[in-house]
Amino acid sequence: MSESLKTFVRLAPTLAVIGLLFFGGLIMGLMRSVNYMPVIGLTEPNLDAYRAVLSDPDFLRSFGLTLHISLTSTILSAVLAVGSALLLRRSFAGRRLATFLFQLNLTVPHLVGAIGILYLFSQSGSFARLAHAAALIDRPADFPALIYDPYAIGIILQYVWKEVPFIGVIVLANMQAIGQDYEAVARSLGATRWQAIRHVLLPQIWPGVLSASVIVFAFTFGAYEIPALLGASYPAALPVLAYRSYTDVDLASRPEAMAMAMVIALMSAVMILIYTRAARRRGGR
Amino acid sequence: MDRDPVMLRTLRGLAGLALILWLVLPLIPLAIWSFARGWRFPDILPQSWTLQAWDYALSDTSGVLDSLTLTIWIALCATGLSILIGVPAGRALGLSTFRGKGLVEMMILAPIIVPGIAVALGLHGVFIGLGLTNTTTGVILVHLIPTLPYMTLVMAGIFANYDTAFEDQARSLGASPWQTFRHVTLPAILPGIIVGGLFAFLVSWSQYILTLLIGGGRVITLPLLLFNFAASGRNDIAGAIGMIYILPGVLVLILTARHLTGRNAAIGGLGRL
Q1: Does residue A156 sit in the same domain as residue A84?
Q2: Nearest C-alpha in A relative to B202
Q3: What is the rounded CA–CA span in Å between residue A183 and residue A198?
Q4: Which of A7, A65, A204, B245 has the highest CB neighbour number within 10 Å of its CB?
């Protein structure tokens, strides 16, 4: 068997499974979103579902909210992750414990983190109880709404909790591979500590930060269970809205659910493009 | 490098402490709830402690144990299939160059980045037609969407540092293809398969929306049960299930901590756990 045939045979099962399940699912979603289903006699594709969705203020509010959740969580996580990595590369008391917790956090499912955030920040949660003990509030209702709130603070807190270690571990490995020699040279040439980080270290770790952040953005834009548990019922995050319209008793809203799924897919396609560009700059993987 | 000033070191210690606290904080109320009896506002700690939630969670009536077995079974099947299908693909990606390789890599990367709900809504209709909705088989199949690309990319990383010369030597000394695989290739890639497999297991273990949609609420894995208890305010039982639910991750971490660096491809898929 020739080498190229062997390569093809080795790749074929994986590509078949991904092609059928993943791309098949996407294409079916796309077809149903344009009302094109020859099997049941719908042979005239149209953009009604997209028109309906894009002119629906509920969808636009959900879209805006989801964009806010993803952008805020990604930016906060990236900044805190770089800070944590800067901290963890130097020795301090408790560094090993912090590194272990960083890794532990990676293995905890998002849902568990979401429940933990719920018990910490809800109006009868741990922080509300501490506020009561400090005589800051009298009743649970006096505590600011951080869960089910319009600004999605609870959701963002959960994402930051999970994604700081994710980006941080990648950035830390980057930093360790780069070493501190370049910064030492910059320092010996008269740069301050901050200048060495800003102009020497950050440009080198930037592609890694970017590709990890892109994964985080795509995930936070499409995750269901976290906003379903911690989010307000109105406006709901986009994945929650899509699931609701899909399971709606009114079957007519299914193409609209598909259109929303396509919006989520489109957003992640943009993220894939940014990711592959960043990976290429990093020297390819 | 010169010694850091005292103030900077103090600052670093404080930041480290804050980081450690913040990382464990959400897990603490979860653990306390699982042992609490009626932990009402404004008590900072429960008035009394009990094992009731654990008794209930581990009893036959709660369905937690059935759900646990089912979740393990689904994750094992998804992992096993991903290893069988993904290891050869990883070899092709890690060792060969061919036309369209960039495109193939992007096709395999896409399911890791695109959220499950974008795919599962379209797939649901097809699975209804095939009789795969509301079945464990359907859920296992749909879990392959995140686990298989993940396993393939981990193995591509392993094979990128693999030398095929040993296989050629074994063959020239008269070993059959199977013997070569069994005694040369497999021992070399086994650590990679184990680490990749453990994390593929965790990827399946943490799936929520794929299971909910394709399982149609009939295939109740642990996260679905956990969500229901948490959403209905049964904090004590949610606490106990939550503790059970994070256990495999802790075990995997203890087994593989030294592999868990960002240099390892294994980390890439963990953003989705």
Answers
A1: yes
A2: A107
A3: 10
A4: B245
SS3 B37: strand
Q: What is the DSSP letter of A248?
A: -
The amino acid present at A251, given as its one-letter code, is L
> Coil, strand or helix: which one is A184?
helix
Per-residue pLDDT for B221 more than 70? yes
Question: Residue B61: which pLDDT band, with cuts at 50, 70 and 90?
Answer: confident
Whether residue B16 lies within 8 A of chain A, CB to CB, comes out as yes
Q: Are B113 and A103 an interchain contact pair (Cβ–Cβ within 8 Å)?
A: no
Q: Using a CB-CB distance cutoff of 8 angstroms, which residues of chain A are in contact with residue B13?
A: 92-94
Judging by beta carbons within 10 Å of its beta carbon (0-12, 13-18, 19+), is residue A228 exposed, middle or buried? buried
A104 contacts B262? CB cut-off 8 A: no
Q: Is residue B246 part of a domain?
A: yes
**CATH code for the domain in which residue A270 is found:** 1.10.3720.10
- A15 and A103 belong to one structural domain: no
Top pLDDT among A62 and B260 is at A62
pLDDT of residue A283: 56
- Residues of chain B positioned with their CB less than 8 A from the CB of A221: 115
Which residue range forms the structural domain that includes residue A24? 1-46
Domain that holds residue B91: 53-272
Confidence of residue B266 (pLDDT cuts 50, 70, 90): low
Decide if B114 touches A, using CB distance below 8 A.
Answer: yes
Q: How many domains does chain A have?
A: 2
Block mean pLDDT (10 aa), chain A, length 285: 89 97 96 88 88 94 96 97 92 84 92 97 94 93 93 96 94 90 93 93 92 94 96 94 91 89 95 84 54
Residue A129: which of B43, B117, B202 has the nearest Cβ?
Answer: B43
B181 touches chain A (CB under 8 A): no
Cα–Cα distance between B151 and B144 in angstroms, integer? 10
Q: CB B106 to CB A272 under 8 A? A: yes
Report the number of distinct structural domains present in chain B. Answer: 1
Q: Is residue B4 part of a domain?
A: no
Q: Which token pair is B57?
A: 């969670």
What would the two tokens of residue B218 be? 């009939």
Cα–Cα distance between A274 and A255 in angstroms, integer? 29
